[in-house]
């Protein structure tokens, strides 16, 4: 599931292209999709956001891949998502696990050893998103860069699968897998690509 993990919202693509980009990525073979529509650059109203989530959730179901909602338990429940992903500063992880942990995949962002160790003590988390591997333009509030060495250290601290995040390029994909991480989660590498099929193929073959 974490091998070729696409994270995207309307703010990450040219206006009006969101659905088409996600469809292309699904057809290309992504292994999971995270609906992360947020921030001032989002082009969707709350009503449109829920409708789009429902539509893309259906596409993911047809393709047999998990549909994960970022940081919005209510929306995740509303569209019957397969999973929820939360950050350290989003809804408290224990609360999320208590609320939906038996019905959904639960992912948590962990960017350092202390966060991984704390998360290891909580039952019900399925995977960690760890990074950023490189500086990233997709998140205004990104954590300090940890690099591949930092990623390897976090992988060594847990038995749970880790998906690498943050500024990952095609050239990094094999090195990410060599750290023991389960795969890469990317935004712009797919969202801003002129050849989405080629990028996803590289992720699957890394």
Protein topology:
Blueprint: E1 4-8, H1 18-28, E2 32-35, H2 46-63, E3 67-70, H3 73-78, E4 83-86, H4 93-100, E5 105-109, H5 113-120, E6 127-130, H6 147-156, E7 162-165, H7 173-178, E8 183-186, H8 188-191, H9 196-205
Parallel strand pairs: 1-2, 1-8, 2-3, 3-4, 4-5, 5-6, 6-7, 7-8
Helix pairs in contact: 1-2, 1-9
Offer a concise description of the structure.
It contains 9 helices and 8 strands. The protein is α/β, with parallel strands linked by helices and 206 residues long. Helix 7 (173-178) links the parallel strand 7 (162-165) and strand 8 (183-186).
What do these coordinates show?
The protein has 9 helices and 8 strands. It has 206 residues and is an alpha/beta fold. An 8-stranded parallel beta barrel has the order 1-2-3-4-5-6-7-8, surrounded by 5 helices. The longest helix is centred in the first third of the chain and has 18 residues, at 46-63. The model has no long low-confidence stretch (mean pLDDT 95).
């Amino acid at each position: 599931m974490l091998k070729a993990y696409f994270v995207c919202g309307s703010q990450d693509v040219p206006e009006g292209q969101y659905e088409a980009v996600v469809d292309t990525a699904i057809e290309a073979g992504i292994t999971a999709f995270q609906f992360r529509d947020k921030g001032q650059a989002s082009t969707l109203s709350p009503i449109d956001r829920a409708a789009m989530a429902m539509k893309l959730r259906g596409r993911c179901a047809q393709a047999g891949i998990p549909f994960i909602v970022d940081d919005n338990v209510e929306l995740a429940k509303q569209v019957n998502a397969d999973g929820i992903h939360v950050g350290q500063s989003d809804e408290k992880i224990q609360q999320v696990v208590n609320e939906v942990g038996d019905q959904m995949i639960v992912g948590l962002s962990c960017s350092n050893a202390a966060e991984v160790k704390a998360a290891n003590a909580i039952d019900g988390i399925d995977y960690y998103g760890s990074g950023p591997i490189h500086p990233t333009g997709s998140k205004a509030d990104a954590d300090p860069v940890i690099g591949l060495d930092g990623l390897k250290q976090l992988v060594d601290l847990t038995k749970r699968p880790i998906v690498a995040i943050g500024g990952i390029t095609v050239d990094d994909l094999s090195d990410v897998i060599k750290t023991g991480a389960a795969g890469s989660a990317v935004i712009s590498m797919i969202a801003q690509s002129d050849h989405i099929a080629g990028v996803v193929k590289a992720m699957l073959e890394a």
